[in-house]
Write a structure and sequence with these properties.
Trna Endonuclease, Chain: A, domain 1, alpha+beta, 34% helix
Length: 116
Amino acid sequence: MDRRQIGIDAEQRAAEFLTTAGLRILTRNYRCRLGELDIVARHDAMLVIAEVRCRSRSDYGGAAASVTPAKQRRIILTTRHLLMCRPALAQLSIRFDVLAVSADQIDWLRGAFTAY
């Protein structure tokens, strides 16, 4: 299986995981010129922006460590774009999560980083 397909499968598993946890998926792979949001979900009055990371090895800190400050900035900027395009979502609180997907588990890091 190639890297692209592994990523697609990891995002599908993460979306199913979040749905099972009670979140409603609003969109997946939201793209603009600033970047991409893997999963945008809602849980009550919370907008959850979920970055899905998949790594086959834990070298260099594993999947969660790969969400660098530069990647966080792109996610935040892309989220701002989403909120401008969908103003109703701007009324919700926002949380940035990371889902670290491995072959046998998903680690859900709620509030992995902030926009401030």
